[in-house]
Amino acid sequence: MSRSQSINSLPHDISLKIASSLQVFDVCSLGSCSRFWRELCGSDCVWEALCKDRWPALDFDKDSSAYQDQNFQLDMDSNLKGWRELYINKHNETAEKADLVMNFVERALAFESIEVGHYLKALEFMKSMQFGFKDVEMFFLKPKLNVLFNLVGLHYCIIWLDVPSKYLTEALHSNEITKRQVCVQWWKLGRWFHGFRLRDELHSRNISLGDLAASNEEVLGVLHRGAIHEVLRVQISAVKPTSTSWSHQVAQSVNE
User: Fold this and answer.
1) Do residues 170 and 178 make contact, with C-beta atoms less than 8 angstroms apart?
2) Which of 5, 63, 181, 210 falls between 20 and 30 A from 109, CA-CA?
3) Is the pLDDT of residue 71 over 70?
């Protein structure tokens, strides 16, 4: 008996348990192995679990097999062929919403930084679209994206989804973006001193996404409040890699 035949001859309950323990990308990969796994990995019981795990806040009616939320209702019996198609439709819908948020942030970027007013609007935008934690993981916490997109997704999970720092840290680590850094600068109104107002104070913090996930209260407070009261302006940008200083380059060239 070949190896593929032995795998395909596993008892149905064990095969189903294996498929049901996987994430969506792994289910799709397993389904491409053979006709046996394609049929098993396309079954409703596997994709129903994936749907409910991906979007736990949605109302899934077990009796009518319908998906409902405030703005959208889809009868699976008349418009879909099963939970797999439901997952695909909902995923594509969420991907389009993620593109809208990213386009908004991209347009708001000026000189590689974003003002806090636009930053907070992006968070409100995400809230109105009802992104879940797994949606943020899938679309915003990716290493190839500008770190400001990572920051928007991370901050959204902190303030709107109230995701525990443990899970945020795990998500950052799995996507290898824990050490990516952002620079948050804010200008505070100058203090009064003997009847004169001193110059406005500039505060600047370079902080990693990992430290933010661990709840850095100072920076998160500035980002959440924005430009109010004594804070005149808040600007967020990516931390650029430190380049070798000019004097060090000169010394190096002399030594050579």
Assistant:
1) no
2) 210
3) no
